[in-house]
Write a structure and sequence with these properties.
Blueprint: E1 4-9, H1 10-19, H2 26-37, E2 39-48, H3 53-61, E3 64-70, E4 72-73, E5 79-80, H4 84-96, E6 103-106, H5 113-121, E7 125-130, H6 138-142, E8 147-149, H7 154-157
């Protein structure tokens, strides 16, 4: 069995940090995951927007494995690329295939409470990293798992 894997809800991470008024340095974040949580593989789930190919390349160069989902625009013209199902399926599949020791889930979205509870019950969860304590779902806090807020690490993770 390998080391730990991270499963990152890209939209939730980006929006949660942005609402706190700072920008995340993804290269530093990848090093943080490796050093603090022994993350060997870090999956970053994102909706694909063709104009962002340079950003995607930079994220891959920083050490992330990007999992894309096609995007659609809603009636208001907002681009949506909900990757929740892809993240849950990847984490569950990797767990059953014994690809990781423990998972690090990066989100504040309560839709992942079922995955977090499952991994906790199977001793497969190391921590949930939520970007923003104000926007973290009660469903995650009620799951009684180790929950850490990235805002606590702003000084080492912010993009100058």
């Amino acid at each position: 069995m390998a080391g730990n894997y991270a499963y990152i809800d890209g939209a939730n991470l980006h929006k949660g940090i942005q609402e706190l008024g700072w920008r995340l340095d993804y290269r530093r974040f990848r090093i943080f995951l490796k050093d603090r949580y022994a993350v060997e593989t870090a999956y970053l789930f994102l909706g694909f927007i063709s104009q962002n190919t340079t950003m995607y390349r930079n994220l891959q160069d920083a050490g992330f494995v990007i999992v894309f989902k096609p995007t659609i625009s809603n009636a208001a013209g907002e681009v949506k690329g909900n990757c929740d199902a892809e993240l849950v399926l990847q984490a569950t599949s990797d767990f059953y295939e014994k690809k990781f020791r423990q998972a690090v889930i990066v989100t504040g979205d309560g839709d992942f409470a079922c995955l977090v509870s499952f991994l906790k019950a199977k001793q497969g969860l190391q921590v949930v990293l939520s970007p923003n304590h104000k926007k973290c779902s009660r469903l995650l806090t009620r799951a009684k798992v180790r929950l850490t807020f990235l805002e606590e690490f702003r000084e080492i993770l912010k993009n100058e």
